[in-house]
Amino acid sequence: MAFDIDRYTATSVGVRWDDLDLEDFRAHPLPERSLRTLRYMADVEYHTVCYTRDLLTTPSHREPDVSAFMTMWNREEFWHGEALAAVLAMHDITVDYDVLRASRLKLGWKDRLDPIKQSVLGSLVGADFVAVHMSWGAANEWSAITAYQRMAELEEHPVLAELLRRIAKQEARHVAFYTSQARERLAASTKAQKVTRFALSRFWAPVGSSINSTDDVRHVMTHLMSGTEGRRAARKVDESISGMPGLEGLTIVQDALEELGVPA
Amino acid sequence: MTRSPSSGPAEPAEFDVRAFARSAHGSLRDDLDLEAVAAAPLAPDVVAVLDTLAVLEGATMAHLRNVLVTNTHKDARVTAFLVTWAFEKFWIADALRAIVDASAGAGAGPGVGAEGRGSPPRTGTAAPGAAASAGRGPVRRAFAGITQGWAVVGAHMTVGLVDDRALGAAYARVAESSTSAALDAAVGRIVAVKGRHARFFDEEARRRLTTSPRAARLARRELRRTAWPLGGAALTAEQRAGFSRFAFGGPEGHARAADLERGIAALPGMDARTAAIVRRGLAGRSAA
């Protein structure tokens, strides 16, 4: 079913947490490893505007539906970052604009060259390159939902679980947009399928890999995706990705876990 | 004054971006009296300029495409503002389109009834799918951004400020020529929403232009090279000309253009030549 962009824009809101008792974290603080994972998640959410930059270098920015989605998506993800930062603040961990700016400054040359690379690839591949971005976005959003669900299961903290449930609910709508876009574009072009398959299998890495250290990525993946339940969740994401036209058999999430040495 | 490449402006910022983001205005439709507009259709030139303004207000992603490939994307306070700015402008564009459609009547006019409540803005029909950012693409801007460092943020804030003022001139003309209380109220509401955008751009531009001669130099160059108004590449030539005529034509329009020109020249580090080039660009004559 096609994604209803009008309905999405009309109902897009920033995630709320003012009705949640965040003070509960003072009495029942999260353990250190969970805070590290939450910090990673907050960084990723805040960084969405930078991911947007790469998508905007493709011809997709000329399409009204894509432009409308990105406007709302950016704002929703910003508020996910704010919500997670509020939880971190209850543990005396500050994530403010200065901290984010400092993080972005550390990214260096790769970050500076990314939009150039994306733009050049977009020019070489043509309109089919949009399918890569949409499929990539779908993989990332599926991963995000899974990560939030796993975090909620592992922590069993009612306030955190409710906040993560609200965030994951919004992420589900992002998945719906990306998969709808990706399916349509992949189904319409064998070239799009080949390019997307190649890009995902060769270059995809867990969301956040480009802005965090390998140690941090390994920590988060081990925290959320190790063991029987973690691997089952990873397999589910892979099944969703490989269910798209031309992407049959891809196991990019499980491959990434293997590469990081995350125990099964 | 020399500044390290990783430093921002020295003066502390006053505009509370978090409060702005928290209190962002979404759909304005509940505030519009569309029945009153439909009952007394607006003048054709007003309808045309509102339609054009809808395209321009909705061209945020094309603008972000240009600014995010530079250091501007690293300034988390600025990006937090821009995310909310784009959201508010999306709904301003939606409100403008609703007024245009209401004035045209159900089933008539460009795109009427074809798009829903949350539809993104239409683009000009002569250039379907055209990028709303004319001229330099992301590759050139990204390469240039590598050497421009933090100073480019000041240039982008200045461009945002000038564009905001240019659109403000068009809204002022709409308000002057309006004989509709419903339109007056709608324009008042839109201008109020845009007031916070203007405050942010004004504060950021002045702060950065004052403290960085390099930012001022880049801003002068950016203002001279920009195709005005921002997003104008998505318009037809007729729409662009109509916008210029409506906002800056006639004695009152000339006065508005002169006021805009004086305002640009009075910004820290700006000059009369740059201001004159922007004015010519907005009047529909080519930039430098």
UniProtKB/TrEMBL annotation, chain A:
GO terms (molecular function) for this protein are: oxidoreductase activity
Q: Which SUPFAM superfamilies match?
A: Ferritin-like
Its recorded name reads Ferritin-like domain-containing protein
- Species, as recorded: Agromyces ramosus
Its ancestry begins with: Bacteria, Bacillati, Actinomycetota, Actinomycetes, Micrococcales
From TrEMBL, chain B:
Q: Which InterPro entries match?
A: RNR-like
Which lineage do the record's taxonomy fields give for this organism?
Answer: Bacteria, Bacillati, Actinomycetota, Actinomycetes, Micrococcales
Q: What is this protein called?
A: Uncharacterized protein
- Report a single Gene Ontology molecular function: oxidoreductase activity
- Specify the domain of life of the species encoding this protein: Bacteria
Region of interest called Disordered, as start-end residue ranges on this chain: 109-133
Which regions are flagged for Low complexity bias?
117-133
Q: Which organism is it from?
A: Agromyces ramosus
